[in-house]
Amino acid sequence: MIDTFKKLFVFGRESRLDKALATVQSSATLAPVQAMQSAGDWLAQELRRAEHRRDGLAIMRAIDNDLRSILEGAMAGMLEAKTNHARLNLLLQTTVPFCAVILEAYTEALRRDMVELARKPANAPLVQASVANWLYWIGRDHVVRFVREPKMDRLPWHEIGPAAEFALSLGGTFASKIARPDGEAGRLQKQLSHLVLLSRTLTPDLQGRQLLIADRVADTLASFIKVSDKHSSQTPFGQANSDDNPPTMLTRMPTQALVQGRGLFYGLEKTLMELVALENIITSQGKVPQKMNADEYLEVAETLVVIKHLKNRWSGREVKRQAERKAISGSLTICYDFGAIRRMVVQATQETKTRTNETTIERAMVEDVSATGVGLQLNKHTGWLKVGMLMGVKTDKDVNWRIGIVRRAIARGQGQMVAGVQLLARDPESVRLTRRANVSQWDMVSDHQSWDNLLGLYLRPDPLNENSHLLILAKADLVAGKTYGAPATREGDLAFRVVSQQEIGADCVIYRVERLATVAGDTQTSAKRDSSS
Questions:
Q1: Out of the domains of life, which is the source (predicted)?
Q2: Cα separation, 139 vs 121, whole angstroms
């Protein structure tokens, strides 16, 4: 491949390509921050000297894979950093200028060389590959800037659309290149589709790791977008004008596209179906597929939260905040770890003078409150906070604990974390569920049936949980459609039939259940009858 690039240069230019490859490959062996600084500084110098050169696209294409490997190492480091605010900031401070200088180099080279190269039909793959790489770096530049400061910056669609159309029209008819998504033309379409998804994915509602997870999901599913040169019910998304507004749902073919006889349109229906399928796979298997999580940095609960957000964004549904936040100052007591929360709920309903020795109880500052949640500031955080984990919350005036689930986890400097907690119930109860034990006749010590005990939390209907009966367990131990006994609750012996698994949290599983009418003493009989069916 390198020999092919060399043929594009005039005499004496081989050394420039060799030097470029050697420099970037040497940088790629360093740690991500040092690698980006080294390669970025060299490329910035090359930009200042490249004004009258015509080999920019070939050189950029030759070093592109090494530049990507450097960037992917840095973005993986951001996911791995989790609550390490200092490391995340260091990576971002280096990654943003690194992506910017690469994007500038591609943009300048395309402006100088693309039209001239395209005059030779044999150069079509080179042009298409260069535009595809340019689109890749537009996306990377957009993502890392958004992670550093979430705001609705627009992608340069007034340049993206014309460049993609021009490159796809080379080496055959425009329609045939779109219809056959293979080779460099297919890779170009995939990168274009990724940008379409990014324009509907990155919002300030997602922050930090969640933005990086959303980007991975978009990259995984971009190939399922349908690209066409015709506006139809299957490809309803497109640009109404040649501005920086992203493709949106159009009711008819734009006038500008009709006059020029050109335009690109997109269909997201299959992509949305694949997103739902991905959610079902993660829920059923309890892990994120390796294709999207080869480094194993993605966690199930956080990924499912991101997918729920993307389902709304990609389908065009407006999601409004359930309740307005109100700034407030104060403090309260929090408890984390499922077992500790359940024990504290039990103690709160029993008269005892024994002080708890739970190590997962601490004080937290209150930043804001709403009708459905609370924003907390955690000082001297030790790294336990995760999106999707259960949390007990209790003010100094409360007797019992309130149960919530962490929806936001944002690292700040000097060991501070901000947690957004959605409240699920005001008056939880710890319950012991019963199910027939999996023992053989040889294991039984008598003729009586043996029973397993499953410890969980029962949340009664409340506006906070959409007036549903909920059971929360540490693991996915319940089966939809089965009935479980709950002896000796506040209301006597109860029985619950599991309707559905509502959510997988970071340290819990939430089930929606219906409460069955039972007679005292009949709970285990009901559960036994259901287990034997």
A1: Bacteria
A2: 28
